Each structure stands twice: as structure tokens, then as C-alpha cells.
């Protein structure tokens, strides 16, 4: 009789332990499934698809702080491209400078006014001179706002008889502003100055 009771007690303990293991396993499996489900939903919500030329391109949502270096450098490149890319056409000059001035504060407007008063743009038009720029590198410090930058570039001035290459170095600061059609990156260049703009090479045409 005692042996039978002992066997029943052992069986009960075994069944109880087995049931606890099954319950714990079910809870762990359910938690894991919920976690993976939420993670999948989050990943799906972070993706968007852009239709371009009939093709669906996948894009990912990211926080602004993750893209600051890339966007800020592109903003600096765009500003310098607009400000220094000039052709002997008043409408082209006005259009490019207008785009550049949306990306910077009054310091850029002062530089433009100084060049205009000195007859620089009039000389370009009168002499049929074209000017382009290639950015060599952009140094950017994103550890403290406003962000300090220094831009190293080459200017190429095409005249009737020669092509002049110039070394261009500028510096300034950038702060965050609202994004717009005229300022898609949402930065504004401040205290912009030209540190160097000198001839380094002249080639005859």
C-alpha cells in the first residue's frame, strides 16, 4: 500500500514538473513570438517604396542625427556649386546665386554684393567667361552646434584664350533650420568667409 502511494506521489511530482516545463516553454515561446512580431512590424514601418521611372526602389526611415554628416556635407557642396558655377549669362548667374542664398545667411549675401559692386559678374558676361567648381573635400565638426566646416575646392575659369585653375578654401558654420523646397537639407550656412582664392595654374587654349 505504501509502495503504491509512493508511486502515485512520484507520478504526481513527475506530471507536475513536466507540466511546469511545458508551461514555461509555452510562455518563453509566446514572448519570443511577440518580440519577433513587434520587431517585424517596426522594420516594415521603417521601409517605404519609391516609384522612379517605373521601378520600385526601397528606402529606409532614419533619424536626422544619423544623417547629419552626409546631409551637411551635401548642403555645403550644393551651396558652393550654386555660388561659384557661373556662365556669361545674367539669368544663369541670377538663378544660381538665388539658389545659393537660400542656403546661407547674410554673410554670403555680402560676398555676392562685394563681387557685384566690383564688376565681377559684369566682367564675366562681357568677356564670355565661364566658371565652374569641383569640391576636393569638406571638413565638418558635428560634435557641437552650430557645426564648423572648412571646404577645399578648385575653381576652373574658362576664358577665350586660357583656362585658369584656382585654389579655393572657405569656412563657416551651419545650424539647423526647417526643411523647404529651397532648402531640402534643413541647414543654414553662417559666418561664411573665403580664406583663399588664388591662381595655381594657367593653361593656354
Tell me what you see in this structure.
With 205 residues, the protein is α+β, with helices and mostly antiparallel strands. It folds into 2 domains: 2-48; 64-204, VirB8 protein (Nuclear Transport Factor 2, Chain: A), CATH 3.10.450.230. It is built from 5 helices and 6 strands; from the N terminus they run H-E-E-H-H-H-H-E-E-E-E. It has helices at 2-45, 64-84, 90-101, 106-117, 120-126, and strands at 47-52, 55-60, 130-141, 147-158, 162-176, 187-204. It starts with a helix and ends with a strand. The mean pLDDT is 85.
By CATH, the topology of the largest domain is: Nuclear Transport Factor 2, Chain: A
SS-derived structural category: alpha+beta
Strand order of the largest sheet: 3-4-5-6
What fraction, in percent, of the residue positions are helical? 40-55%
Order of helices and strands: HEEHHHHEEEE
- Ends: how far apart? 116 Å
Give the mean pLDDT. Answer: 85
Strand content: 25-35%
CATH top level of the largest domain is Alpha Beta
- Our Rg estimate from Cα atoms comes to 32 Å
Number of helices: 5
Which consecutive residue ranges, at least 5 long each, have pLDDT under 50?
A: none
Shape: rod-shaped
Query: How would a textbook summarize the main sheet?
Result: 4 strands, antiparallel
Total domains: 2
Please tally the β strands and state the result: 6
**What is the CATH homology-level superfamily of the largest domain?**
VirB8 protein
- Second-tier CATH architecture of the largest domain: Roll
Amino acid at each position: 500500500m505504501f509502495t503504491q502511494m509512493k508511486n502515485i506521489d512520484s507520478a504526481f511530482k513527475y506530471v507536475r514538473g513536466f507540466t511546469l516545463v511545458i508551461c514555461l516553454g509555452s510562455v518563453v515561446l509566446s514572448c519570443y513570438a511577440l518580440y519577433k512580431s513587434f520587431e517585424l512590424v517596426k522594420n516594415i514601418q521603417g521601409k517605404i517604396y519609391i516609384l522612379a521611372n517605373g521601378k520600385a526602389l526601397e528606402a529606409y526611415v532614419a533619424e536626422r542625427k544619423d544623417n547629419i554628416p552626409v546631409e551637411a556635407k551635401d548642403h555645403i557642396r550644393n551651396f558652393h556649386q550654386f555660388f561659384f558655377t557661373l556662365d556669361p549669362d545674367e539669368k544663369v548667374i541670377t538663378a544660381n546665386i538665388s539658389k545659393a542664398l537660400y542656403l546661407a545667411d547674410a554673410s554670403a549675401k555680402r560676398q555676392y554684393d562685394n563681387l557685384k559692386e566690383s564688376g565681377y559678374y559684369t566682367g564675366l558676361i562681357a568677356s564670355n567667361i565661364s566658371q565652374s567648381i569641383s569640391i576636393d573635400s569638406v571638413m565638418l565638426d558635428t560634435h557641437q552646434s552650430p557645426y564648423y566646416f572648412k571646404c577645399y575646392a578648385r575653381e576652373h575659369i574658362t576664358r577665350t584664350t586660357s583656362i585658369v585653375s584656382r585654389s579655393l578654401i572657405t569656412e563657416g558654420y551651419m545650424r539647423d533650420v526647417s526643411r523647404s523646397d529651397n532648402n531640402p537639407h534643413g541647414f543654414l550656412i553662417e559666418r561664411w568667409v573665403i580664406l583663399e582664392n588664388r591662381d595655381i595654374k594657367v593653361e593656354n587654349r
